[in-house]
Amino acid sequence: MKKLEFADWLGIGFIILMTIFFLLIPAPVKAADGEWGKTGHRVIGQIAQDHLTPEALKAVTELLDGETLATVSTYADEIRSNPAMDGFKIWHYVNLPLDKKYQEVEHTQDNVVTAIEKCIDALKGGALTKEQKAFHLKFLVHLVGDIHQPLHVGRKEDYGGSTIKLKFKGRKAEETNTNLHVLWDTNMIDDFKMSYTELSDYLQSYQKVDFPQGNAVCWANESQQIVKKVYSEVKVGDYLSYPYLYSNFYIVKDRLFQAGIRLANLINSIYV
Known about the structure:
Layout: H1 6-24, H2 37-50, H3 54-63, H4 69-72, H5 75-78, H6 112-124, H7 130-148, E1 165-168, E2 176-179, H8 180-191, H9 196-206, H10 216-232, E3 239-240, H11 242-270
Parallel strand pairs: 1-3
Antiparallel strand pairs: 1-2
Helix pairs in contact: 2-7, 2-8, 2-9, 2-11, 6-7, 7-11
């Protein structure tokens, strides 16, 4: 057997080091389907921020160390790649059959409704640390957005529209392969070509607060009523274009605005 020279050992060492290096690099994480996507959540956060009372604004600013509701609105999605946070994945949605309201279904695990209620209780209670309360506030901002996205109260069998594959071409975008869930989360909002600050300002410039505050159960039932229409208008493989956007984007705008106002009212009621 040939005796290994120094150069041979050097080469072997390099291979071992590179192997360790690549093993330590985290595998790419598949992005979670949207929950309004980043833009939608930030729009909701910004609208809520603009409608906080002085008392609530002071409390929120201190709790979030100067961050805004818009900037923390995507936190609950950003932590989903952390295995330690797997237990919170079920907080983002609730599956309902199309013929039953939330209160008519037996719920055997947490869902977006119970999670919102838990966050409210945590923020109202006095036993948690500042970090724990900040965690629940960030989740509350996100989940109020989620529950107003109709496909987050969709059917269990198609994962809230995620298995309904479609093609979509908006006014300015190239044709894209998508699914019903992502279409409502992201595609339609992105096709509007506005930043979250522009879209939040636009919505607040003409939308009126002519809807009840309600609570998480009410919001889930509203989304379920909308999702019936959403499901009835598409099937797997459909090609959707501007006419679909034109006839449905008003719903997206309404739900974004409603979520922002309701979130503000909720936070204002906590910090009185």
